[in-house]
Amino acid sequence: MPTQSALSERLQAALGKQYVLERELGHGGMGVVFLANDLTLHRRVAIKVVQPELADHGTITQRFLTEARTVARLRHPNIVAIHAATEAAGLLYYVMDYVAGESLRERLSREERLPIEDVCCIVKDIAAALNAAAGAGVVHRDIKPANVLLDAASGRAMLVDFGIARICGADGGAVITGDGLVLGTPTYMSPEQASGEKIDARSDLYALGVMGYEMLAGRPPFEGSYRLVVSHHLSTNPKPIRRLRRDCPPNLAHVIMRALEKAPADRWQNGAEMRDAVAEPSQPATHRRPWLQATAAAAVLISARSEEHTSELQSH
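RE: above sequence
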């Protein structure tokens, strides 16, 4: 496996003169993300490149290109946009928006439980993103705090990493994976995903419910080993969120707990329905979300040091 420095040099050679790499933002099992300057459009971008030893694997290559094409057609303010996908000099890479701020995982690691108003905003934003994805026939399958970015400039929560997304065609689509690859993160898996059954957009809404529960309680509804967590998702009802967060409004508690119903038919049926069910507290006159000040400060730190764009932005 080449060092990150060697990979950076190879990628820079492949990029030519349009982009100049600055530093690594993060990496996962499949690829590495670098911060770069687009010299043509005078903007910062993030460039994700597949590890070279994986790029030779036909299935991985197909997965990577599918991810790029999938996200490229999902134009939505709560989904990180992809601008280009290319194969050059033996490397697979794509160029996407750079989001200055922090991931939801980073914020939860720092604060554990978030203010009610912030939870409402994030749930609404990601529900809107999932509604748009479902409208394009896409199931994300890895909704988790590491795949949600909090943009310091706009205040939006933005969804990233469609690397294991399923493209749902008329026949239900095909899952593109390597042998033995586990799709998804057990803590946030819906019961049907955990049991290997066919899934649809309601599976992503379950995962959003898990994430909302964690933002309110400071921990997800189920924790432990892989087998234990999967077993709980299949057969155990989570504790009512208001037992763990007494200041949670009844309406928000209802939104989260309904998203966590075991049967898909008992959950919210689409992201728009879930988004509209959240009674968001009134915003200040500036409409600047409460977490922005902290996120903007984090963005300054991020620009001064090399840290992950998101903990598993590139994990697959």
